Amino acid sequence: MKKIVLAAVALTLAVPGISRAEKVKIGFVNSITGPEAPIGENLTNGVTLALEDLKKKGIDVELIKEDDTGKPEKSMAAFEKMATRDKVAGIVGPYSSKCANAVAKLAEKYKTPLLIPVASKEEITRQHLKWTFRLSATTYDYATILLDMATTLGKPKTIAIINENTDFGTSGAKSAKDYAGKKGIRIVAEEAYAPGSPDYRSTLSKIKSKNPDLVFMVSYVADAILLMRQSREIGITPQAFLGAGAGFATVAFAKEKDISSNVFSSTQWTGDVNWPGAKDFDKRYQAKFGKEPTYHAATAYESMMIMAETAAKTGANQEKLRAALKSGQWNGIMGEVRFADYEGYTNQNKHQMLVEQIQNGVHETVYPPKYVSKKPVYPFPGWKK
Amino acid sequence: MNIFVQSLISGILIGGVYALIGIGLTIIFGVMRVINFAHGDLLMIGMYGTYYLFTLFNIDPFVSIVITIPLMFLYGAFLQKFFINRVLGALPQNQILLTIGMGLVMSNAVMLAFTSDYKILSTTYSSSSVSILGISISSPLVISFIITAAITAALYWFLMKTNTGQAIRATAQDREAAQLMGINVKRMSIIAFGLGASLAGTAGALISPTYYIFPQVGSTFTLKAFVITVLGGMGSIVGATLGGILIGVAESLGGAYIGSGWKEVVVFVLFLLVLLFKPSGLMGKSNA
Questions:
Q1: Same structural domain, A166 and A309
Q2: Domain for residue A47, yes or no?
Q3: pTM of the model
Q4: Which structural domain, as residue segments, surrounds residue A227?
Q5: Coil, strand, or helix at residue A90?
Q6: How far apart, in Å, are the Cα atoms of B94 and each of B3, B37, B39, B86, B87?
Q7: Which residue has the higher pLDDT, A258 or B18?
Q8: Is residue A151 located within the same domain as residue A129?
Q9: Per CB distance under 8 Å, which residues of B are interface residues toward A?
Q10: Nearest neighbour of A193 by CB, restricted to B120, B211, B261
Q11: Domain segments of chain B: what residues?
């Protein structure tokens, strides 16, 4: 009797094993609608390109897509559905920090590997979660690379921090505060705002009165434009405007030349960086979607590649998939990727951040020197009249 | 001191636009006793109209209200005639469901048609300002405030002096009595909703050079309009004007002196205080 059972078990295990070479089931949670949708679109496009490339490699991905509309509770529901009903091998996503943070603990509960492409709140990978992996650098790196650059280019003494009062914004502001302290830069103003308000003038005039050398901002798409417009109106002129990725890294922001010129933005990736396949990805993306890819697209592409390739090797066995992600090493459009444990992080890729500056409506890589495409303009030359 | 004056001025200017949104909602409520939860979405449609008039036909946002106002009036009248008129006698919760549903249809239809991308309307003056005694004043906000004031004045004259205006006010005071006096109340309702819609659309047009546009933008303003209307007294135009400016100033000063994240708290504390001491709102007459 026992033998028959064993044989039956072996058979059922073996059958999906035969077909697994062709098909892997991967979940993808993203903000397809809702306020973060313009950025979510980049992730979707990145994944679309990844699926094409995977097909060329003989890996057929059955993608289960769910929209979280930017809300953590919807992300959680999507994750539970994918882990229990769709029985996916692993999940890529969600986009925003608040959603990723909520979902990270579920990965642990359902023992389903989660690869977060770009949500950068530090704490997400600081909770000793075995099943959560992160490709992107954290908000701490967003702040450090910018301040490193500013202190190399000039001698800023004071900084004002403006951030959206969400997970990403608060985490970014805290990182900036910590690192500014270490660099001996005095914090003269700290303003957390609720996103979506048409009027930030009172906040900005308060900041102007403190006359800071650096203005550090953490904002999503539209608020980045609004804050810079109103900064121009009020006439804030620091040595440099530093934007922590997100809204400042988008094409829409760069196109607003009046207000975006000479603003710095930290980024995970640029189209002209010399990581294998990055330039090619940039070209293909523009050809297919008719716009420049942001770093979000690149992280989503690479995450999907890593997750699907690894899952194709290990099959639907999630323990094996987790172990393979943990021990694996990749070198693709995001540079070298390895999920390591360091400085309190678990399964965190030590990613090299870059700084870009908007010059003539285009993002140019200006820091670190190894990756530079144009010289940085510093200090801020003032507003064009 | 500078910060105080600066915040006060930008608060009043932005409050003018809030007032316009509030007035639209209050007219609709006054005449029909229907709370229009699709109000923010009407504003959103006004924004999209302005955006496309600007990008496709190069019509300045402030000039384009000449087109937006009649178009939004017709759209509002259409909604009233074919949808809202049917539920006027129904339970309030059914009316609320209808307007919420209309709002959802509008925002999702727009999303389907124009995607959820943020649209930024950039005029040459979007971030320009005039500086007076060290205080910088946003030029587009000043223009929109002047237009708001003119529209409010014209509306007030219309409601006070013209026959149709008086008929609308009569309908608002007592629907049945107005009907008995030979006023076509259905027609007045259509005009009232058209007015409300065109005011919301105008507010959308006025705010678009300085704000951003996306299909879900309405919900923020629906809530704001609701607070303004209740604060000023449901159905009172003067109240809504006052309420709008009050909210604008409260947000602005709250942002400057307490903290940007506390803006909303300041507004809602103010709101609760008014309701505690004057439950019918600032200019409201008790309906009970």
A1: no
A2: yes
A3: 0.79
A4: 140-267+354-371
A5: strand
A6: 47, 12, 17, 11, 7
A7: B18
A8: no
A9: 2-3, 6-7, 10-11, 14, 17, 111, 115-118, 120, 122, 126-129, 131, 136, 138, 207, 210-212, 214, 216, 220, 248, 251-253, 255-256, 259-261, 263-264
A10: B261
A11: 2-217
